[in-house]
Design goal:
By secondary structure, the protein is of the alpha+beta class. The chain is built from 4 helices and 10 strands. The strands form 3 sheets. The chain has a 4-stranded mixed β-sheet with strand order 1-2-4-3, with helices on one face. It has a 4-stranded mixed β-sheet with strand order 5-6-10-7. Strand 3, helix 1 and strand 4 form a beta-alpha-beta unit. The two termini are 21 Å apart.
């Protein structure tokens, strides 16, 4: 089982996260931000990852530190759980529809962080979550996991659907990218290392 547990404590947040890449989609999440919890539950369920997460953040300030720091910790957990990347498919992509919304997500677990995000919202927040934090969350994940991550909204107007489709597309793409293929000897790279 490819499982990682990461704990991170700062003056702004106190986080404990356990990620099982070979799970069944079970989650137990409490960040104090209801909509964010809903997004992370969708990530776990649709990626078939098991995710245990508690975060106590300075929500009296705003949602920024909590969401960004969870992104950092999730990225660290992904990197640790995939380990040496032997026989890893490495690439994953998903074009995911959700009613009015169509989201594209593509991942390369290259060991080289890079993030491209092309998505706009028409509202400043959904529930207690600022919509601009979707971008910041995935930026933090991509750099902590050392992955190349592209997210692009192809269509959509409902802000809830746009955010939810983003998390689900990321989950499906990551599930594909973390698949082990026994036909791959070593790592999938012309360099011989990732």
């Amino acid at each position: 089982m490819r499982v990682s547990t990461i704990e991170r404590k700062t003056k702004e947040t106190d986080i404990k996260l356990t990620l099982n890449l070979d799970g069944t989609g079970k989650s137990n999440i409490d960040t104090g931000i209801g909509f964010f919890d809903h997004m992370l539950d969708g990530f776990a369920r649709h990626g078939l990852f098991d995710l245990e997460l508690t975060c106590k953040g300075d929500l009296n300030v705003d949602c920024h530190h909590t969401i960004e720091d969870v992104g950092i910790v999730l990225g660290q957990a992904i990197k640790e759980a995939i380990g040496d990347k032997k026989s890893l498919t490495r690439y994953g992509s998903m074009m995911l529809p959700m009613d009015d919304t169509l989201m594209l997500c593509a991942i390369d677990l290259s060991g080289r962080p890079y993030f491209v995000y092309d998505c706009e919202y028409s509202m400043p927040s959904i529930g207690d979550m600022d919509t601009e934090m979707v971008k910041d969350f995935f930026y933090a994940v991509s750099y902590s996991a050392e992955m190349n991550l592209h997210i692009k909204k192809l269509d959509g107007f409902n802000n809830h659907h746009i955010a939810e489709a983003t998390f689900k597309a990321f989950a499906k793409a990551l599930d594909i990218a973390t698949t082990v293929d026994t036909r791959i000897e070593g790592v999938l790279s012309t360099k011989g290392s990732l």
